Amino acid sequence: MRVRYKAFVVAACTALGLAPGAAFADDIGNNLDPSVDAVAEVMPLTLGGANGGTSLYVIPRNGDGKNGCNLTGTTELKVSVASSDTAVATVSPTTVTFTSCGEVRPLTVVPHGQGTAMVYLTMVANNSDGTFNLAPAQFTVTVSPPPNTAPAVVVAGVTAGAQYAVGSVPAATCQVSDLEDGSTSFPATLGAVSGPYAADGLGSQTVSCSYTDAGGLTAVASETYVIVDPTAPVVTAQTTPGTPDGHNGWYVSDVSLDWAVAEPESPNSLVTTGCDDLSVTGDQLAQAYTCSATSAGGVAASSVTIMRDATAPSGVQFVGGPVNGGLYFPTTVPQPGTCTATDATSGMDGCEVSGYSAAVGSHQVTATATDVAGNSATATANYEVYTLQLSGFFQPVDVGGVLNTVKNGSTVPLKFRVFDRGVEQKSTSIIKQFQQQKTGCTTGAVEDAIEEIANTGGTSLRYDSTAGQFIQNWKTPSGASSCYTVVVTTIDGSTLSAKFKLK
Q1: What domains sit in the chain, N to C, each tagged with a CATH number?
Q2: Residue 41: its pLDDT value, please?
Q3: What is the pTM for the complete model shown?
Q4: For 199, phi and psi rounded to 5 degrees?
Q5: Are 200 and 174 in contact (CB under 8 A)?
């Protein structure tokens, strides 16, 4: 950096090379002051500034008894000009010659360093018969420092009033420009962060710059910005089981709910509501649980809805269908029934009956009730489908593929017995029907004549308690050479048949 100085020149009226009290005809003067007097003359110069300048000339004074100028004809006056301290200033030219009065000889004074120097004149040659006073031409040069320009400082990298995310504040620097020292830069000084969340590095911050130049002048600058949290907290929920383990969004077991709240930028500003971990161990309808979090970065919330039903439906009942412990003939088995049940929480999703059969044998039907959550309960009913056991026909009728021959128009006694699980049945209500059907006569069938019954004693069905059997007298149709199949059917659908050929 360049520093400029000012200079002051003082001219002292001093006679060089002449005794005090001598008379002078002519003076050597300079144009710092047009008059010759006893007051010091001054040439101020500034270091680094423009050169100083003055002029030398001869002024006739008539002090030596001679009138007019001492320089006439071929006479001349030669003097040397020098600086008492060339480190402060130099003068040129160093030799000046006058051949007449009124001649002007310019001098140039060049400043070199701070300080004071005397510019003095010394007689070199004088071929006139007059005398000259050199004192008025002497002067003092004072070189002072040049004026110092104050530096300029600005804060770069950040903007006043701007908001910056915590951890992403730009680097602030001091940019200095100075006319004398030049330009430079250095990191700005960071002030403390202030505000309610200063512990998290959030709030107002001022950066400052100060620079003092070589001339002692100081410049300062500062900028204030705000450091913020740019993101809201993150709220997450974790349930165990991770997803509903029942149907239709229902849980059918205990559920634990754990909250996690993350706020890495401004943890000290975090405030949570409803974020306590919990366990759901009882049945409940849909209930929402919400965790909300507020921080310097904003507001975030997450909600989880939990529905729990771990209780199976109750009161499973059959509606219609075979009853538990029921005994049925194939023709009397009830149609498949339905079922009902109740559920207190999620509600019923349906009830189905399985295992139904009307076939002969032992059966079990199962009613399965399912609620919306997927819980199920069952009920069962056992029943049996069976048939009557028929025995017969007894003599005179043959069975087993025998073609019985009988006179047409005669009466044939059909004798048989009926048992219900080993118990003989005696009520004619056990017999559903008696049928005859004309059929083709099987070629090669064994023909066996049956005894004709002259007196039928009636044709209605009856139970003969003496013989211990049912008797159905069948009046054969008229017409020889035709064949019939006679079938007795009991109420369970069981049959007993025999084949006949009329002759």
Answers
A1: 26-144 (2.60.40.2030), 152-228 (2.60.40), 234-307 (2.60.40), 314-385 (2.60.40.10), 389-502 (2.60.40)
A2: 66
A3: 0.59
A4: -65, -25
A5: no
